[in-house]
Amino acid sequence: MTDGTNGRRRAEPERHRGAVTLRRESIPSSTADEKLLDSHHRREWKTKDAWRSLRILSEFVEGFDSLADLPPAVSVFGSARSKPESAECEMAADLGAALAEAGYAVITGGGPGVMEAANRGATEAGGMSVGLGIELPFEQGLNDWVDIGIDFRYFFVRKTMFVKYAQAFVVLPGGFGTLDELFEAITLVQTKKVTRFPVILMGSEYWAGLLDWIKKVLLEDGKINEADLELIQVTDDVDEAVQIIVDADAALAETHGQR
Ligand SMILES: C/C(=C\CNc1ncnc2c1ncn2[C@@H]1O[C@H](COP(=O)(O)O)[C@@H](O)[C@H]1O)CO
């Protein structure tokens, strides 16, 4: 496992805005997402937001255009902070490889940690490895194992791509970013905004407390129902995770015809 530099000295920080690369003093202190969402920028809203919507649109166009030809794919989420030698990174690399061997492209956030491990596993197994990066104030660029990479300015555009082009979500241990991606997926399935697809948690020990709380508090308090619990599957076995995805794909093809 590497830190994505392949032993090279990491170049100076840079920021990508569409086709534009910014370095040194040209790197702005804010991000496009912040300018859109933070009321601190309220004075610009009147003059800039209408134009900003075109940039948002162009980001959708770029994503749709670049990803439309992907083979069936699985989005893999997990911590940006996990060390390469951690158990979750090893699991992510094995998962990336197993998904590639089963014919799935692997889509991640293109960052370090679990994302890099999953991309690496897929690439080393000869599969297609996709990274959907996001502009961050402390951006470090896409990891070196990404074959198709897109840098997004807007989180919500990027999130559309994770869902639209994936047959399943696999979620490994992570923090707020990972939880956001997990709960967005479950909500989309629960509200039937997307056809039911597997949302698989890997790292049962890590997720045990959350699952317990979901059962004890959300279920007992009537905030979700028993059937909602079935939206999440848990396994530590890479082959089982892949089999769940393959089976769900086959079931869907039977119901709706071949994709
Ligand atoms: C925090 C660090 C780097 C951040 N770089 C990221 N690059 C790409 N995607 C990211 C990054 N940070 C979060 N994400 C997305 O959220 C999930 C991970 O977030 P978590 O809070 O670490 O669980 C991940 O799946 C990404 O889609 C330091 O190196």
UniProtKB/TrEMBL annotation:
Region (Disordered): 1-35
Enzyme class: hydrolase
Biased composition (Basic and acidic residues): 9-35
A GO MF label: hydrolase activity
Species in which this protein is naturally found: Paractinoplanes rishiriensis
InterPro entries recorded: LOG, LOG_fam, LOG_family_nucleotidases
Any one annotated GO CC term: cytosol
GO BP: any one term: cytokinin biosynthetic process
Reaction catalysed by this enzyme: 9-ribosyl-trans-zeatin 5'-phosphate + H2O = trans-zeatin + D-ribose 5-phosphate; N(6)-(dimethylallyl)adenosine 5'-phosphate + H2O = N(6)-dimethylallyladenine + D-ribose 5-phosphate
Alphabetical list of SUPFAM superfamilies matching this protein: MCP/YpsA-like
Lineage, broadest ranks: Bacteria, Bacillati, Actinomycetota, Actinomycetes, Micromonosporales
EC number: 3.2.2.n1
Similarity annotation: Belongs to the LOG family.
The protein, known as: Cytokinin riboside 5'-monophosphate phosphoribohydrolase
Keywords carried by this UniProt record: Cytokinin biosynthesis, Hydrolase
